[in-house]
Each structure stands twice: as structure tokens, then as C-alpha cells.
């Protein structure tokens, strides 16, 4: 059984590079207690790391890919963490979501490798189900007005668009506007390694 799970565990070199900087931001913005729904958990390495270091939070990993779900489950098996929940299949564009009882949302490296409709669905569900003052945390590369893309990000963006015309590095201003249309306001931008950003949005009072 362990050998099978070992074969199912996917590994991303990027996770080893970015998990500590992301964790540092999450420590500052996530609630002390509650349930965090992670969108597009991928290999599951982030989920395992964050659940281990944020023991007072319940971590709900999710992904639309069966291969990713198997990897998340295999990584989850490596540590007996009571706060790391079984992964669930969740495609952001298939609404309503199967999980709606969350106190915060975390979405790492999804916006640029999915169609814009996925971003729209993410904010729509966040606006409906995040509690007042609840956080939506985004991580990844973004384009910013009046700032040229770093050469590595420009190359990455061109490659993404060749692979799928619906993909590409999103404009931060458009993401911000999309959030505001669903009652989420931009609270913080944190510069991260490898020309990425942490983007923290929070559901404002009076939004529905």
C-alpha cells in the first residue's frame, strides 16, 4: 500500500521554493480558527505543509483532477494530521460548489492556467459564502498597470497562451474589479519570490 501511495504522490519543485513565503503571509491574514478551503490544491504538498504549521485551522484541499486528488490523499497519508481533511473534487466553474462552509479561501497558481470564467466563478462563490471579513488569498504571477512584465513572466505568459488561448497571466486591476463586483476588496499585495504576488482580498461588510 505504501509503495502505491508513493507512486501516487506528485511533487512540484515550485512548492519547495514558495511554501515558506506563502506560509508567512497566511499566518498574518488567515483567521486563528476555522475552515480553509484550498482551491486547485494540485499535488497536495501545500495542503500538507500548511495544515502542519497552522494546526488551529481545518484545511480542506480540493481539485478537479483525479490524479491530483490521488496525490493529495497520498501526501495526507504521510502524516497523521487531524486538521487536514480528505480532498474533495471541486471544479470552480461547476456551481454551486460541494463545499460552502468555509471561513477563508486559498487559491495558489490557478488564475493563469484556467479560463477567465474560473476567476469569475471563484469570486462569485467567495462573495456568496465567505463570512464578513473572510479572506480570499491568491498567489501567482500578475500583470500590473504601467509596469512591464518581468522577462521571465513575459516568456511564461507567451507559453501559456500558446498552450491554451484562454490561459495567461491576469491583469491585477481586472482581478481587483472582479472581486469588488462580488463584495471583496483588495487589502494587501505582497511581493513574492520569482516575480509572483500574494494578493489578499477580504469580504466587506454589507456585501451579499
In short:
By secondary structure, this protein is α/β, with parallel strands linked by helices.
Give the biggest beta sheet: 7 strands, mixed
Task: Count the beta strands.
Answer: 9
Indicate the low-confidence ranges by residue numbers. Answer: none
Order of helices and strands: HHEHEHEEHEEHEHEE
Strand content bin: 15-25%
* Distinct helical segment count: 7
Structural class: alpha/beta
| Shape call | globular
Specify Rg, calculated over alpha carbons.
Answer: 16 Å
- For the residues shown, what is the average pLDDT? 95
Helical content band:
25-40%
Structure description:
This protein has 208 residues and is α/β, with parallel strands linked by helices. Helices cover 39% and strands 23% of the residues. A seven-stranded mixed beta sheet has the order 3-2-1-4-5-9-8, with helices on both faces. A two-stranded parallel sheet has the order 6-7. Helix 6 links the parallel strand 6 and strand 7 (170-171). The longest helix is centred in the N-terminal third of the chain and has 17 residues, at 13-29.
Task: Please describe the structure with a list of short key phrases separated by commas or semicolons.
single chain, alpha/beta, seven-stranded mixed β-sheet, two-stranded parallel ribbon, globular
Secondary structure elements and their pairing?
Blueprint (H helix, E strand, L loop, with lengths): L1 H7 L4 H17 L4 E6 L5 H9 L3 E7 L2 H12 L10 E2 L14 E5 L7 H14 L5 E6 L1 E2 L7 H13 L6 E2 H9 L3 E9 L3 E8 L5
